Amino acid sequence: MKSILSVIALSSILAFSSTASAEKTSPPEKVNINKASVQELDEQLSGVGRRIAEEIVKHRDAYGPFQSTSDLDKVKFIGSSILDKNKTRIAYE
Question: Is residue 60 a part of any domain in this protein?
């Protein structure tokens, strides 16, 4: 009986682990940098917390929509590291 319970427990753990692993390897969802809210930017972009998300929105409101990464590079606290981490996630539509 103990061995059956052990097998069931181990199977459950392995099933959960493979599901969690699959979620991490799925392609990142695109974020429209010109329409996303502070919360969306904070949650969906790597290395971008609330403060940087607020700066993105503030810059967008002051200067208009972003056309490319060179525009986004002008935002306070945004550097090449953040841009590199998110280059496949950012849409400029």
Answer: yes
